[in-house]
Amino acid sequence: MELRHLRYFLAVAAHQSFTRAAEQVGIGQPPLSMQVKALEQEIGSPLFKRTSHGVELSEVGRAFLPHARQAVDDAERALRVARQAASGEVGVLRMGFTSSAVFHRLVSHSIQQFRQQHPALEISLSEGITEQLLADIAGAQLDAAFVRIVSIASEELGVVELPAERLKVALPRSHRLARRKRLRLIDLAGEKFIMVPRGKGSALYDGIFSACQAAGFDPQVIQSAPQLTSAINLVAAGLGISIVPEAIEQVQLEQVRYIEIEEPAPRAQLSLAYHRQSIAATRFAAHLQRQLASGR
Length: 296
Hints:
Layout: H1 3-15, H2 18-25, H3 29-43, E1 48-51, E2 54-57, H4 59-86, E3 91-97, H5 105-117, E4 121-127, H6 130-138, E5 144-147, E6 157-161, E7 165-172, E8 182-183, E9 192-195, H7 202-215, E10 220-224, H8 228-236, E11 242-245, E12 256-261, E13 267-268, E14 271-275, H9 279-294
Parallel strand pairs: 3-4, 3-5, 8-12, 9-10
Antiparallel strand pairs: 1-2, 5-14, 6-14, 7-11, 7-12, 7-13
Helix pairs in contact: 1-2, 1-3, 1-4, 5-9
């Protein structure tokens, strides 16, 4: 029994005529009759009774009708879902992000807009460090992730770079430099730094160290923080200072001031890394690129 046999049967049942059914399905009346006869032979009983006005369903045909209709509907529904999945319209987009990425305006905005445009697509979010997120993409546990990398695009991994973020100095409000509008990096020489360990964010860690060394000093790291928001809390407690992406300025604490760094100011790079074989991730990457191109 093939799906076309069911469609032919339903057409004849709807029109009560082989001739009109043949016109609907787009084949000749003789081949349509042969296909329905083959279906009847497979079932082992006639599906129609011939009348002076055409045909009508037999008792077996009436019993068979709702199941045939359900089978065709299910097949058409399955085809629609498969086509939507092939176009990235349905399914699950498994998205990862570093702890600081959630504060970046483009990250939250792009995910929100994409969700609105693809309501049937589920977006699953998980937090992690860059190295683990990249490993999860390579291992097919994630489809895409916002990570702190510059560019590691490959045959399997695509990368969309977001505009580089300025870094700012987070100081306790009581700090001697807290009233300054801008600071040079060299002004921070000898200060006690609070930083997220390199193992939890090597790109940002290395960028800060390189910028400080270029300014003429090595940062004196006296306290580690599990993530950037924790570093801000430690700054608020007066334990030291920190250099953070400007998006972290959204974490507003009364005891903390964020101060711009004079040029040449270091930058932090946030990028979307995605698996090129993931249809949903590829669509999201294209969506993000359109947002970047439009400046939104």
